[in-house]
Amino acid sequence: MAIIKTEGLTYVYGEGTPFRKVAVDHVDLEIEKGDFAGIIGHTGSGKSTLIQHFNGLLKPTSGSVYIDGEKLWDDKAKLRPVRFKVGLVFQYPEYQLFEETVYKDIAFGPKNMGLDEKEIDRRIKETARLVGIPHDILKKSPFELSGGQKRRVAIAGVMAMEPEVLILDEPASGLDPKGREHILGMIKEYHKEKGNTVLLVSHSMEDIARNVNKILVMNDSKLFCYEETAKVFHRSKELADMGLAVPQVTRVFDRLKAMGIELDEDVYTVKFGRDLLLDKLSKRKAEQN
Amino acid sequence: MIKDITLGQYFPGDSVLHRMDARVKLLLTAVFIVMLFIAKGIEGLAVGIVFTVAAFLISKIPLKMMGKSLKPIIPVIIFTAVLNLVFITTGDVLWEWKFIKLTRDGLDTSLFMVIRIICLICGSSLLTYTTSPIDLTDAIEKLLSPLKKVKVPVHELAMMMTIALRFIPTLIEETDKIMSAQKARGADMETGNILQKAKALIPILIPLFVASFRHAEELALAMECRCYHGGEGRTRMKQLKMSILDLWGTLFCMVFLAGVIAVNYFTKR
């Protein structure tokens, strides 16, 4: 069964004012348990609005959202448990840190869930390990940390709730390449270890291509498609028309194909492209000999 | 949503009132307040009412907006009315119950007070509805500039006001974001007693505080990078200019002021 399902989900900002804007327009979507999905779309395409419906932060103007088969907004009291089930990490999450120590800040979510001290402690230790926060930092004030460390602490704060679905809005934005790599690596690790559903909003096609197995494309408030990575990048022309780019390496290989080099598969990671090329070259060498 | 709060009340438009010079409007608002307060009886106040209604019609501000600015002072209006009704005990008795005595004089005075407050709020909110906050601070700076001679930091004060106004929407947006983020971590802001509710604000207030300090620091740096050094020798892109409209506005206002004085003089008390 799909963990997240939407039916005709529509959200309108500023209904009844001159500033009325449809942010999400009739989205029908089913995200399966265990998916690691990327969400792409240009700025203002409705990505952020869409994900805020998945944990009941925004109420749909019309249409409905089902989490694990249960319809949201039928009973307002049930919204809080949904937020523990679907963890949402906002863009620049380090700005939400507030506690005296890193330990206490990560504990905020689990504490709100009503867990006991021992369980909270276990979860903090585990997420700290997962995101790579050393033990001595746990006792420090979150305001003393570096930008990248703060980001990791903030993400750990949501991960510690052990949500069945983890949604991250641009978790790597504003970090240097090393920090990016680290954050994305740790998200991938989390997915591998827990087998939970992970949704990753990102502008970087390279980051998406390297990590996820499915891609959701938003265009102009509408759902363009939700399919396997390869299938989505195969439609590079349509993506380009939307103002989205496929990964650089895919473009390189598209050009190679246009030049008449026969390649049977689509390439969207550098590693895979290298292997494919090496394979092709060695075959050609074998033919020549 | 929290974004719906109107703080800067400016309502864009192109009416005569909108086009008038902010300095003149500010001074005329002061004249308007004087007009309302020197009116001795309901007859004098009637002139003030006519002026308020006329200004309102000229401004082309929707009636709904007026209601919006009156809403927060409804408690004050009720309080004034009740106070006057109960404590003025001269004149014919209209109704009596135990120690409470309602009299003709009490009713008259409380009506008079209520109408005066309503006119006052409506008239002065026209100023903020038709003048953008930036124009308003410019006008205040200009009007107060003679005080520079006695070492009052007029420019600095005006700059502080401009910056404060500029950052209100930014901070509202920030609050919205932080609230969503903490709600996503299960923060509960709706249930519980007052103490619990106050405690629930901590996760919002601390990040907000940190954010405003960050904004202040960044802004200070940006201003310094552009060689900001206070008001001396500083010119403006948008100059305040007086036109014939302002003359007419002033005349219009003065006629009504004279009207109130005349009514005061001719009605017998």
Key descriptive features of the protein:
heterodimer; A: 289 residues; alpha/beta; Rossmann fold; six-stranded mixed beta sheet; 11 helices; globular; B: 269 residues; mainly alpha; 2 domains; two-stranded antiparallel ribbon; 2 strands; disordered N terminus
Characterization of this structure:
The complex is a heterodimer of chains A (289) and B (269). Chain A has eleven helices and ten strands. Chain A is an alpha/beta fold and 289 residues long. Chain A has two domains: 2-235, 3-Layer(aba) Sandwich (Rossmann fold); 247-289, no CATH class. In chain A, helix 3 (102-112) runs parallel beside helix 5 and helix 4 (117-131) packs across helix 5 (147-159). The N and C termini of chain A lie far apart (54 Å). Chain B is mainly alpha-helical and 269 residues long. Chain B folds into two domains: 9-155 and 241-269, no CATH class; 163-229. Chain B is built from eleven helices and two strands. In chain B, helix 3 (42-59) packs parallel to helix 6, helix 7 (133-144) runs antiparallel to helix 8 (154-184) and helix 8 (154-184) crosses helix 10. At the A-B interface, helix 2, strand 6 and helix 3 of A face helix 8 and helix 10 of B.
